[in-house]
Each structure stands twice: as structure tokens, then as C-alpha cells.
Amino acid sequence: MNEQAQKNLITELSRNVVIKIAPEEQPSFNAISEAYFKNPEKTLKGEGGKDELIGWGVAEVTILVTPIVLEIVKEILKDIIGVYITKNPTLFDKFANFIKRLFRINPSPPLQPLEPQTKEQLKPLSTEQLEEVRQRAYIKAIQLGLASDKASLLADSVVGSFKLTPSLLVAPYGN
User: Fold this and answer.
1) CB proximity list for 75: less than 8 A, separation 6 or greater
2) What is the rounded CA–CA span in Å between residue 89 and residue 37?
3) I want to staple 43 with a disulfide (CB 3.0 to 4.6 A). Which of 8, 23, 67, 97 is the partner?
4) First and final C-alpha spacing in the chain
5) Domains of the chain by residue range
């Protein structure tokens, strides 16, 4: 599994969540995510402060949502990928490419239907699995210091990012 491809996928799924729940962090998302991947523990603890992460001063103390989202998406994606990779080691690249096209991260070629074999292997998460994703995201967000209402919004957004319906797997996106 390509580590850079995994980081890119985590980053893009996280960006979609951050845009929904903390749009004010969008301008600093790239800098914060780079800092997170260099040192996740330090970024999650807020050590060095926001000044160090994004290169300019902020008088108020705030909890950054971006590193929390990155951590949650990383953990959940790791589990999901683990299940698929054990079945087919080349599946990660196909899944990553599909997600990038789905979110129009690299919109150059139009989204094509997945190959029949891949469609069967990339079944959407079940309702039970999505409920587990939500619960894990909520608990982790609370553990990382988010208020209950913000943690709930984050958990819902994470579920939305992982929710792939069968129609999206077999039909071109946006047509």
C-alpha cells in the first residue's frame, strides 16, 4: 500500500468534513494537515499553538477541528482499508482513485463505472457499519476535546464522507 496515496485519501476525505463543519479552517487546512502528518500527537495536543502551525498569530485560543478530523478519518479508513486489502492487495489504489474522482479531486477524466469485479468488492458500508463509524468518530472527537454538539456534527459529516451508495459505484458522478 502506497503511504502517500493513503495520506492523500485521508486528507481529501478530511477536507470535505472540515469544509462542512469548520469552514473557517479551510484557508489553513493544508498547513495544518502538513503539520499533522509530520507529528500527529503534537498537532492534536495543540503544542506550539496555532501560530506555529499556520505561521501567523492569533490572539484567541481555539480548538482546531482539522487535526481531529484527520485523526478520526485516518483511524476509520485504516480499518476499512484493512478489510478490503486482505481480500485484494491492489484494491486500495482502485478505491483511492474512485474516491478522488467521486469528490472531483482530480477531475481530469470523467468518472467511469467501476469494473464489475471491483463493484462487488467495494460494496458500500452497511447501516450497522456506518453506525459504528459514527459512534467511533463521536467518541474520538469527545476524547480529543470537542464539545458534544460539535462532536455530533463531526461524526455525522464523517459518516457522510464514508457513505457510498451503490448508484455512485456503478454510474458516472454528476451525470
Assistant:
1) 136, 140
2) 24
3) 67
4) 32
5) 3-170
DSSP, residue by residue, the chain: --HHHHHHHHHHHHHHHHHHH-GGGGGGHHHHHHHHHH-HHHHHHTTTHHHHHHSS--SS----HHHHHHHHHHHHHHHHHHHHHHH-TTHHHHHHHHHHHHTTSS-SSPPPPPPHHHHHHTPPPPHHHHHHHHHHHHHHHHHTT--HHHHHHHHHHHHHHH---HHHHHS-TT-
Q: Determine contact, residues 77/13, Cβ cutoff 8 Å.
A: yes
Q: What pTM was computed for the model?
A: 0.69
The model's pLDDT over 111-163, given as tens digits with 9 standing for 90+, comes to 444 444 444 455 677 888 889 989 999 999 999 999 999 999 999 998 888 77
pLDDT digits (tens, 9 = 90+) for 117-127: 444 455 677 88
Contact (CB, 8 A) for 65 and 21: yes
131's grid cell:
453506525
Residue 141, all three cell numbers: 472527537
